Amino acid sequence: MNMNKVFENAAAALYDVRDGSTIMLGGFGICGIPENCISALVASGVKDLTCISNNAGVDDFGLGLLLKSHQIKKMLASYVGENGEFERQLLSGELEVDLIPQGTLVTRIQMAGMGIPAFFTPAGYGTEVMKGKEVREFQGKHYLLELALHANFALVKAWKGDVMGNLVFRKTTRNFSTSMARAGTVTVAEVEQLVQAGELDPDQIHVPGIYVHRILQGSNYEKRIEKRTVHLNTPVT
Amino acid sequence: MALDKYGIARRVARELKDGYYVNLGIGIPTLVSNYIPEGIQIMLQSENGMLGMGPYPREDEIDADLINAGKETVTLLPGGCFFDSFESFGMIRAGKVDLTVLGAMEVSDQGDIASWKIPGKMVKGMGGAMDLVASARHIAVAMMHCTPAGDSKLMRECNLPLTGVRCVKRVFTDLAVLEIIPEGFRLLERAPGVSVEEIQRRTAGRLIVEGDIPEMHL
Hints:
The complex is a heterodimer. Chain A is of the alpha/beta class. Chain A has 6 helices and 12 strands. In chain A, the strands form 2 sheets. In chain A, strands 1, 2, 3, 4, 5, 9, 10, 11 and 12 form a 9-stranded mixed sheet that branches. In chain A, strands 6-8-7 form a 3-stranded antiparallel sheet. In chain A, helix 5 (102-114) packs parallel to helix 6. The model of chain A has no long low-confidence stretch (mean pLDDT 95). Chain B has a 10-stranded mixed sheet with strand order 4-3-2-1-5-10-12-13-14-15. Chain B has a 3-stranded mixed sheet with strand order 7-6-11, with no helix packed on it. Helices cover 16% and strands 26% of the residues of chain B. Chain B has 5 helices and 15 strands. The model of chain B has no long low-confidence stretch (mean pLDDT 95). Chain B is α/β, with parallel strands linked by helices. The chains are: A alpha/beta, B alpha/beta. Chains A and B meet through helix 4, helix 5 and helix 6 of A and helix 3, strand 9 and helix 4 of B.
């Protein structure tokens, strides 16, 4: 049995992404981003996308590729400091941007995956983030009402996945991906290693397969590093 | 003489206590990890999803899957662990992190902080800073006292868009250590050789000077 979740490649798995779709993309900076799915979106030419991602990639990699090709109409993110093209499109008004505190952003996504429509958080109280939001006081502290954030598609990249859609991540690549995988109306996971049912340790699954609708064996991972910092005092071996 | 950024980091490091869980922001705060006092063990939290962050890797240890919140390659110390960003901000919101050290563009004498945006000029986003300042138990700011143009960053009110309100407890600059109390910035320490008068001259917010102000120990 494979529950028919396995797709040949990212282009095949994203066959029904339309102009104007809302898409979540996992990753922190360019760590753990769904490289194959981003390439497939660029190749497909879909446009007017609303993208939800913590960052906007760098100028020539990750979401930066979709920005450069002007396929993104609106972006929801917490930090976009590493992408000059993003800043240019934002300041010139070509791109609509909603900047959201990181913890609020990931919690809004997670809540969508947990069936909780809204929650209160103190982040942003007294700042411009508060604009238009309900404020409540609990035990003398102020909180903003924030809504769950849904998407037509959630695209994530995991280290290993099985044909049932169970996912395992490596090191700091879990970041937003485990929350997004839960929140997509359609969740597509690309993995470095696609294995058969029973090959993953069921005690070590980060995303249970029920959340993952489509899975594919990724290829040609570049896994680019944004800031290569090394310990200079240690001899290189 | 005023401290450089390494001096500020050395002074902030003296605030660390054994067993602390600490989140260090980008910039001067990151440097604090180089000056952890001997005999003290702390665990660094990186909000992208790691406890027990270690130093930068050797060339042969670099792993694209292992970065800190500043997107730099790092290592994990024994006893450290990984998690997702939802979990990470849960521990931040719930006040599990003992000390948060952040950089800032402006701090007001009531503890407001501005650090994420210069309207019409620079739009980088707040990242996790708004979540951190709204929830951390103890927030210290590490920054230069003045802008490169010489304007004080310690204000009566912040001019730039705020990151958080009434949240900063202490400020560590190249000139001074200050505590925020209801009446304003209370001067606690001077950088070696820096006079109280100079600190007064370079502080735009209300400055409270009581008695003799000792020099910092570094």
